[in-house]
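Late entry, written up from scratch paper. The run itself happened at the end of the previous shift, but nothing got recorded in the book at the time, so transcribing now.
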Amino acid sequence: MTPNPTLREHIRAKAENRPGVYRMYGPGEELLYVGKSVHVRTRLLSYFRASKGEKTWELISQS
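Output as recorded:
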């Protein structure tokens, strides 16, 4: 599974690297995950790195 490249570009363009909470939604706007981070942009982009587990790839691919 590979994550959506459009989502990655959107994160790069819009997400700020500051403390905050983020939500990931699946098809039909169902809430899949809520996370928090000191550096939100860095955390979100980390989901696109190749060393992620199967569960993480599935979450990203559904977003």
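The radius of gyration is 11 Å.
(Scratch paper discarded after transcription.)
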